[in-house]
């Protein structure tokens, strides 16, 4: 069993090669030797069941592990009843689409505190999240992992501690650790093996070694300001964090996470760069 690597969404090279539909992505990724694909529902879950099932069949045939990124409009901490109702709907629809597709996890952004004090916003978020979990369980949607993501801006919920707090609410909630975001929001941390190792150790302590060893990871180089994340770049650009120490830790520990690359346009090529480095590390250990 190896770590899996793949892109978030469809890279420029896919379209430049003349493809248009996501149903062709699994075969295209397999051609590159990649093994994961995160399907983007960022602007809403509009995919039809037949399309989702077709992507799922292609992914199964080409050994590509699937995840879904839920809509950006989700805000668990909202005090607005309409946004709360929509947040529930977006999460439940994302889980349903994941079942159609055979995706094993749904990644989502927890939301923003708005004008609320941060701790109070977390309590609000947990109340709404408990409702989402109960309803999903009632509908039998809890066969898919729900994965709250660590976020890149100061005014977003989603520090590692906040994400782990949400993960403790149900067995089928697991963290999505975005190291680019964590690099941005901490003003440039997560560049050394010790810093990356500490994240895995913390997840292992809080949620168990199994979860730590099979973490869902987002990785990209990110430009940041004092407020946090500004822009996603590519591996050709001079921004952090660097992937080498992260992959050294993963290889050394024989972990098997799923790494989704979110570079701007070159996400498949950069996922491949990470995968090749990972296999070089494994061979050297
Ligand atoms: Zn995200």
UniProtKB/TrEMBL annotation:
<dbReference type="InterPro" id="IPR013022">
    <property type="entry name" value="Xyl_isomerase-like_TIM-brl"/>
</dbReference>
<dbReference type="GO" id="GO:0006284">
    <property type="term" value="P:base-excision repair"/>
</dbReference>
<protein>
    <submittedName>
        <fullName>Xylose isomerase domain protein TIM barrel</fullName>
    </submittedName>
</protein>
<dbReference type="GO" id="GO:0008081">
    <property type="term" value="F:phosphoric diester hydrolase activity"/>
</dbReference>
<dbReference type="GO" id="GO:0008270">
    <property type="term" value="F:zinc ion binding"/>
</dbReference>
<dbReference type="InterPro" id="IPR036237">
    <property type="entry name" value="Xyl_isomerase-like_sf"/>
</dbReference>
<feature type="domain" description="Xylose isomerase-like TIM barrel">
    <location>
        <begin position="27"/>
        <end position="267"/>
    </location>
</feature>
<dbReference type="InterPro" id="IPR001719">
    <property type="entry name" value="AP_endonuc_2"/>
</dbReference>
<dbReference type="Pfam" id="PF01261">
    <property type="entry name" value="AP_endonuc_2"/>
</dbReference>
<dbReference type="GO" id="GO:0016853">
    <property type="term" value="F:isomerase activity"/>
</dbReference>
<dbReference type="GO" id="GO:0003677">
    <property type="term" value="F:DNA binding"/>
</dbReference>
<dbReference type="GO" id="GO:0003906">
    <property type="term" value="F:DNA-(apurinic or apyrimidinic site) endonuclease activity"/>
</dbReference>
<keyword id="KW-0413">Isomerase</keyword>
